[in-house]
Write a structure and sequence with these properties.
The structure holds 2 protein chains of 2 kinds.
Chain A (H helix, E strand, L loop, with lengths): L1 H22 L4 H24 L11 E3 L4 H18 L1 H36 L1
Helix pairs in contact in A: 1-2, 3-4
Chain B lengths: L1 E3 L17 H6 L3 H30 L9 H35 L8 H19 L28 H30 L12 H32 L9 H19 L2 H14 L7 H15 L15 H10 L1 H15 L8 H23 L2 H7 L3 H31 L5 H27 L16 H31 L37 H7 L14
Classes of the chains: A mainly alpha, B mainly alpha.
């Protein structure tokens, strides 16, 4: 897939280059947006390639969560914090508090997930 | 609570005979439940925005103001457009992608399911934030779904509802982005052994093309909405100098790919429906995949065609890229027709919706070619021609495609079929309703009727065409009522579907209906983009053949 990101970024760059050379883009927004797409896609491809995350991963057991109640709470917290920008700091602080509570829950879940995976691997051995 | 994916079929999250608890319904990280939750959200917004459309169409049936005042009308078309194009369509395609992509690539689950769940909730809460404007003193935003400046600045729209619109759009589109990332990561990281890139199904490839656009365009709109909020409440960002053109560039850099983001996945879905119901392999698969990637690149290069009349953009270049879109679109249409050619076609409901998609989107696509020409665009800009054009692309493309997908995959999701007779009636009513509603808009637009107006002068003789469009809108409403009836009926009376009711061609059809928690007990060998079709050609039963790696 790394090649897909890279190739698509180059394609966008090529279309932008046609605009620049043949039509002499006048507005800076065009250069910024075409250049931005090229940079993001090539950067993403390079990052995936360098980290090895662009490769398909087929082997190994994975611990998967079944339910995650902190996630809807986190979404609510983000929404309240954002709407607080309109209605006042008090709402943002409530959102922030809920967000911290949700992040604590998520941390607990991740630890449980790691423990489940370790248990499974121990049982296999 | 966590479970560990294992080679054997894992148990369903909720054992048969037990209803999911409230917590399981709202916070399950199973990609299938997230997909269903998000689709329910999207359809809820669709029906709500449809109700607003009925009020507007009924108002427009006659000259003069009968039902709502002008200010309310402005609010109605703003929330209708915002809801349909931002809160219904992108969430709907992300829902279908979240449900299907892991199944189609043979994965046990989606990568980063919590991120996907967070995205789903942000879409719901962001959408409710937009709609909460109705609860404020001056009502919701009234500056249309693109919120052009200076109409959307603090001087023109100082009330709370406008700020809630900006915040809600930012939150909901952040949700869409967060849902898209896990789908792409699943395609990159979790394909089953043997599933090389060119063995991925057409729908999965269409999601790749879609998500490339989401990855580059959605951060731009989120940033733009944050800047607009700052502009309205703190400091000049766009209101100084030529900032309104910069705002339009940024908004349409998102707004035009958006049109294709809500269309591409359904091109993939319709392609799969056409191949399955023509009992043939999809014609020209590799070329179609390349065409989709080119289509996505061109779609991300045309945003300024919405700004031809501002005279501040490079009209020639954007006219060229817009017209060039006809090439990959033509390749896809050719592939659809060639797949049907000499196929043994079954005209079941999903296929009827797919054919409706092909016909109606063609009208939208062809009318798009002439508005790609700046002189012609100058003539019809901001008229009802544009309204008709984009409703043919969005209704003919997205809504017909979505219903083709819903009727096709509903048995997989629920284990029961939807009724064929009701489905055919729905499809027929939608087809007739779409023509009745949107063809008069072309004629009204050519006659000079401007878009986004609450009233028109009686002497213009536009009442007949507007009345026909209103009758069409109510016909569409009747079709959607039939869909609701069909879903409710199928819950009790629907025929059990089994794993593969349509002789499908892709991996999801070897999973049980509905699929177990970790999707597959076994996988067949994957030698092409249509592995089940391969097995049938070899005279083998796809449901019992085990030849691939353990799921």
């Amino acid at each position: 897939m790394t090649r897909v990101f890279f190739g698509w970024g180059l394609l966008m760059g090529a279309i932008g280059l046609v605009g620049l050379l043949a039509f002499g883009f006048e507005s800076p927004e065009n250069l910024a947006l075409f250049g931005g797409v090229l940079a993001v896609m090539v950067g993403l491809a390079a990052g995936l390639w360098a980290s090895g995350l662009g490769r398909n991963e087929v082997a190994g057991a994975r611990a998967l969560p079944d339910v995650s109640p902190p996630v809807p709470l986190l979404a609510l917290a983000i929404t309240l914090a954002a709407v607080g920008a309109e209605y006042g700091l008090w709402l943002t602080l409530i959102g922030g508090g809920l967000g911290l509570f949700a992040l604590g829950g998520l941390l607990r879940e991740v630890r449980a997930q790691r423990a489940a995976l370790a248990e499974e691997e121990a049982a296999r051995r | 609570m966590s479970s560990v994916s294992a080679p054997a079929a894992a148990p369903a999250l909720v054992p048969a005979g037990r209803r999911a608890t409230f917590v399981e319904l709202l916070s399950s990280t199973d990609h299938k439940r997230i997909g269903v939750l998000t689709l329910a959200t999207a359809l809820g917004f669709f029906f709500a925005a449809g109700a607003l459309a009925l009020v507007m169409r009924t108002e427009l049936a006659r000259s003069g103001m009968q039902i709502v005042d002008r200010e309310t009308y402005n609010q109605l078309f703003t929330i209708h457009g915002t809801t349909m194009i931002l809160l219904f369509a992108p969430p709907a395609v992300m829902a279908v992608g979240t449900y299907l992509v892991p199944l189609q690539v043979g994965a046990a689950d989606i990568v980063w399911p919590r991120l996907s769940l967070l995205g789903s909730w942000l879409i719901l809460l962001g959408g409710l934030t937009v709609w909460s404007g109705f609860l404020t003193e001056n009502g919701p935003a009234d500056f249309a779904w693109f919120a052009f400046l200076p109409l959307s600045d603090a001087a023109s729209s100082p009330w709370d509802g406008a700020d809630l619109w900006v915040l809600g759009v930012a939150l909901s589109q952040l949700g869409v982005l967060l849902m898209g990332i896990p789908i792409m990561a699943t395609i990159v990281r979790r394909r089953a052994p043997g599933m090389t890139l060119l063995r991925m199904p057409l729908f999965t490839w269409s999601m790749v093309a879609t998500l490339l656009m989401v990855l580059v365009a959605w951060p731009v709109v989120i940033a733009t909405m944050v800047l607009l909020f700052v502009d309205r409440n703190a400091a000049d960002v766009f209101t100084a100098g030529g900032g309104s053109i910069t705002y339009q560039n940024l908004f349409w850099f998102f707004g035009h790919p958006l049109v294709y983001v809500v269309f591409f996945p359904l091109v993939g879905a319709v392609g799969e429906v056409i191949a399955t119901f023509s009992r043939k392999r999809f014609f020209g698969f590799e070329v179609t995949v390349l065409a989709q990637l080119l289509f996505a690149a061109l779609s991300t290069s045309v945003w300024s065609h919405h700004m031809f009349t501002t005279q501040s953009v490079d009209n020639k270049f954007f006219s060229l890229t817009t017209t060039a879109i006809a090439v990959p679109a033509g390749v896809e249409y050719f592939a659809f027709l060639a797949t049907m050619w000499r196929g043994r076609i079954r005209l079941a409901t999903p296929m009827l919706f797919a054919l409706g998609f092909v016909i109606l989107f063609l009208i939208g696509g062809l009318s798009g070619i002439f508005v790609a020409s700046p002189p012609l665009d100058y003539h019809v800009h901001d008229s009802y021609v544009v309204v008709a054009h984009f409703h043919y692309t969005l209704f003919g493309g997205t809504v017909f495609g979505l219903f083709a997908a819903i009727y096709y995959w509903y048995p997989k999701v629920t284990g029961r079929r939807l009724g064929e007779a009701l489905g055919r009636w729905q499809c027929g009513l939608m087809f007739v309703g779409a023509l009745l509603t949107f063809v008069p808009m072309f004629l009204l637009g050519f006659d000079g009727m401007a878009r986004q107006i609450a009233d028109y002068p009686g002497w213009r003789d536009w009442e007949t065409l507007n009345t026909i469009a209103t009758i069409g809108a109510w016909t569409l409403a009747a079709a959607f009522v039939l869909f609701v009836v069909n879903v409710l009926r199928s819950r009790r009376l629907g025929e059990p579907a089994g794993p593969d009711p349509w002789d499908g061609q892709t991996l999801e059809w070897v999973a049980s209906s509905p699929p177990a928690r970790h999707n597959f007990g076994h996988l067949p060998p994957i030698a092409s983009y249509a592995p089940l079709h391969d097995l049938r050609e070899q005279g083998r039963d796809p449901l019992t053949t085990v030849g691939g790696a353990p799921a």
